[in-house]
C-alpha cells in the first residue's frame, strides 16, 4: 500500500468524524485525549457485547458508543498549553493525515502503518469476541488493540517532534502558557 492509498483512508476517517481545524484544536485538550484513551475501547466493546443479550435494543448502546467517540473531541475547551504528550498526539495525527501534502519520513510511515495493523487486528479479534460473548478473545484482542494504539500515539508524538519545524502551520499548533 503506498502513501496515496493510505491517505485516502485518513481522509475518509476525517470526513466521518467531521474534524475541522476548530475540532482538532479542542481535541488537543489532554482531557479529550485521556478520556478517549480510558473510555473509548471499553465502551465500544461493552456495547458490542450487549448485542446478544439485548438483541435489537443493543443498537442503542452501539450508537451511544459511536456518538461518544464522535462528540468527545468537541466537548473540551481549546487548551492554553499544548506542550504535552497528549496534545502532541493529536498534532502528530494531523501531520500523519496530511502526509500526501507534506511528505513524512519513511520510517514514520512504516511504523504508523504497522501499528495501525496491529491495533486493527486486535480490534477485530475483540469485536468478534464481544459479538459472541467470549471473554478471552475480547480481552486479549482489546489489549492488543489498546497497546497498539498507544504505541501508535507515542509514534505520533515523535512524528510531530520531527515535523514541527518543516511546516509553519505545524509549529503554530504548539502553545506554551505564558509565552
Task: Walk me through what this model shows.
With 179 residues, the protein is an all-alpha fold. It has one domain (3-172). Helices cover 77% and strands 0% of the residues. The chain has helices at residues 3-17, 21-27, 30-49, 51-54, 58-75, 85-97, 106-131, 135-163, 168-172. Helix 2 packs across helix 5, helix 3 (30-49) packs antiparallel against helix 5 (58-75) and helix 6 packs across helix 8 (135-163). The chain is globular, with a radius of gyration of 17 Å.
Q: Mind summarizing the main beta sheet? A: none
Query: Which bin fits the share of residues in helices?
Result: over 70%
Task: Tell me the series of helices and strands, N- to C-terminal.
Answer: HHHHHHHHH
The Rg value, from CA coordinates, equals 17 Å
- Report the structural category: mainly alpha
End-to-end span in angstroms? 42 Å
Arithmetic mean of pLDDT: 91
Form type: globular
Determine the number of helices (DSSP H or I, runs of at least 4 residues).
Answer: 9
Beta fraction: under 5%
Overall structural domain count? 1
SS elements, strand count: 0
Low-confidence stretches: 1-9
Amino acid at each position: 500500500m503506498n502513501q496515496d492509498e493510505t491517505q485516502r483512508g485518513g481522509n475518509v476517517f476525517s470526513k466521518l468524524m467531521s474534524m475541522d481545524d476548530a475540532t482538532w484544536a479542542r481535541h488537543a485538550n489532554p482531557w479529550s485525549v485521556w478520556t478517549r484513551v480510558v473510555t473509548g475501547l471499553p465502551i465500544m466493546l461493552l456495547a458490542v457485547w450487549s448485542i446478544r443479550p439485548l438483541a435489537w435494543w443493543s443498537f442503542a448502546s452501539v450508537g451511544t458508543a459511536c456518538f461518544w467517540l464522535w462528540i468527545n473531541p468537541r466537548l473540551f475547551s481549546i487548551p492554553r498549553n499544548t506542550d504535552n504528550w497528549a496534545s502532541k498526539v493529536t498534532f502528530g495525527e494531523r501531520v500523519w493525515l496530511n502526509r500526501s501534502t507534506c511528505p513524512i519520513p519513511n520510517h514514520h510511515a512504516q511504523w504508523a502503518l504497522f501499528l495501525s495493523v496491529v491495533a486493527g487486528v486486535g480490534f477485530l479479534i475483540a469485536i468478534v469476541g464481544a459479538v459472541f460473548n467470549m471473554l478471552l478473545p475480547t480481552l486479549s484482542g482489546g489489549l492488543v488493540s489498546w497497546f497498539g494504539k498507544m504505541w501508535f500515539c507515542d509514534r505520533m508524538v515523535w512524528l510531530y517532534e520531527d515535523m514541527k519545524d518543516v511546516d509553519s502551520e505545524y509549529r503554530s499548533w504548539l502553545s506554551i502558557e505564558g509565552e
